[in-house]
Amino acid sequence: MELDMSPLHDTVSDDVAIWRYMDLPRFVSMLATRELWFAKAATYDDPYEGFCKAVPSAGHGHVLAQNAAEVCGNARDYLYVNSWCLAFESMAMWEIYGSRGCGLAVRSTVNQYRRAAKFDTRADQYSFGEVTYHHDLDASLEIQRDFSRGPIPVGSGVWPEVLKLGFNKRSAFKHENEWRAALYKDYRPEVSGVRIPFDLEQLISAVYVGPRAEAFFFDAVGSIMDKFLPLRKPLERSVLLNQPKK
Fold first, then answer.
1. Domain layout of the chain by residue ranges
2. What DSSP string describes 9-45?
């Protein structure tokens, strides 16, 4: 489907860098399938991922409002996300994914990601953007939906309202500095996520191994990349722990 270049949420400049940290099995899976994993919000450890406070319709005459309130109130079961770190390389993320020297990261840009994605769905069922972090997410208007007086303006459907919920998190997770893609899917209790095809040549600017990676790991990642032609992208070693030059 042709990509909508005016997504719901994204105000980040096209040329801003984004980083995806991962372990080696996830990297191999991405290269082998040429797909990225979008995890269902309900599967995250964070119980506020995709959380919504939805006030239902006061009466029985607003069927659309009642249905929309139910969907928004259970948005975690309809929302799928793929998350990246925004702008800068992060030592905190290396500690999470590469503390033993076996983590790696893919660097891209906002524009490359948007152009590489191959969503086979309506353009109003996915969105891109920077996550907003809240000191008191429970009290934030961003996660509240009031259907007590009938349907709220939701454009072509309830999907945009669900998608907006995917871009709000508690400040305890601010170290992630997230930019992400959010996808709406109908209720599918049997799945924990979906795979979305991507043009990896378009997506990837470079691949990095962590600052504690040993030479054998660098060589192993290079060999894996060589086997998945035509992926010819720079392989770099993070220099975050290098000694400063005097």
1. 17-237
2. S--S-TT-EEEEEEEHHHHHHHHHHTEEEEEEGGGSS
Residue spans of alpha helices (H) in the chain = 24-33, 63-73, 91-98, 110-116, 159-165, 200-203, 215-227
Cβ-Cβ contacts under 8 Å for 85 (sequence gap 6 or more):
18, 19, 20, 21, 93, 176, 177, 178, 179
Residue 101, classified by CB atoms within 10 Å of its CB into exposed (0-12), middle (13-18) or buried (19+), is: middle
Contact call for residues 95 and 210 (beta carbons, < 8 A):
no
141 residue type, one letter: L
- Six token digits for residue 206: 């470079």
Peptide bond into 56 cis (omega under 30): no
Per residue in 71-121, pLDDT tens? 999 999 999 999 999 978 999 899 888 767 789 999 999 999 999 999 999
pLDDT of residue 151: 64
Q: Give the rounded percent of residues in the chain with a pLDDT score beyond 90.
A: 67
Task: Label residue 229 by pLDDT band (50, 70, 90).
Answer: low
State how far the Cα of 40 lies from the Cα of 37, in Å rounded to an integer: 10
Q: Kind and range of the H or E element at 179?
A: strand 178-184
